[in-house]
Amino acid sequence: MENQMIRSIFYSEFHPTAGPKIVFQVPEEIISAEEFHLMHIYVIPKKQLRNRTITLNFGGHRILGCPVYIEGPQYERNALIFNCCFVFDSSKDSSKYEKIVRKLSGYLTTLEVQHNFLSSEKKNEKLPAIMNAILNDLNKFGVCEIYIDPSTSLHLQREESVRDLVDVNDHDVPIMINKPSEGFENLDVAAKQVMRFIDGKRFVMVIALDADMDLKIVKHVVRLLVQHKICSLIPIFQYSNVYMTTPNLNKLIQDKNLQEQCLKFVAMRGEFVNFIESK
Hints:
Elements: E1 8-15, E2 19-26, H1 33-43, E3 54-58, E4 61-65, E5 68-71, E6 79-89, H2 98-115, H3 127-140, E7 143-149, E8 152-157, E9 172-176, H4 182-185, H5 189-196, H6 204-211, H7 215-227, E10 231-235, H8 249-254, H9 256-266, H10 275-278
Antiparallel strand pairs: 1-2, 1-6, 3-4, 4-6, 5-6, 7-8, 9-10
C-alpha cells in the first residue's frame, strides 16, 4: 500500500576506527548488521559518488540514499562521511522520493556545517525522533515539516506522478476525513485559507468565491489535501437522480445503535443532538 511505502530510514556514517556503520535506524533491525556489512561499500562509497542519488537492490530491499562528504580539520580523518537512506520493498518504485533524499542530505549538511548537529553526540540524539517523524508523515501525508529549533525547520514533500493526480471538479464537495498534521498546516497561506472554508457543504466553486481565491489555486490545494488523505471528495446531489430505499431500512427502525450512528454521521461538527433519547 502507498501509505506504507517507506519501510525504514537509517543514518550511517564512516566511523574513524570502526569503519562504515549504521548509527540510527527507525524502525530498528529492518536492515541487519550482517546485511549492512555486505552492502556498505555502496552506502558509503568512494568520494567520486558524493552528493549523487544511489539506488541499491539488496536482500528484498530497495535502498535510496545520497552520500555526503564534509571535509574539515575538526574531524578525526579530516572528513565526516554519512548517508541517510530510505528503505523500500524491492518491488516498489522509489523514484518519487529521490528529490526528498537529496534535499534531506542537504538539510543535514547545513545543520552539521552551522551547528555540528551530526558530529556532536549530544545534538545527534535528536536524529532518531526526526527520522521517525519523517517516515510517519511521508507515509501518511506525503509531506512533512519538522522544527529542529525555533529558527530551523525541515520541509519535505513527495513528488506525485501523473497517475496519482486526482481530478477535482467545480461541483465536488471536499469533506475533512483526517486532521492535518502541524507540518501540513504550516506549508502555505493558500492551504490554510482553503481549509477554513471546507465545511462539508460548500463545493469547490463556492469555496473559491467565499475565500476570494482563484479557482485553479483552490483546485490545486484540494487536490493536495485529497492526495495526502486529509480530505475526500463527494459530488453534489444531482436533482435528476432517483433514490429508492431497500428492505434494510427496517434495521434503522429497530436498531437504536444504528440510529445513533446515522445521526452522528450526518450531523455537522459539534451539532449532534440525541433525538432518540430526547423523545
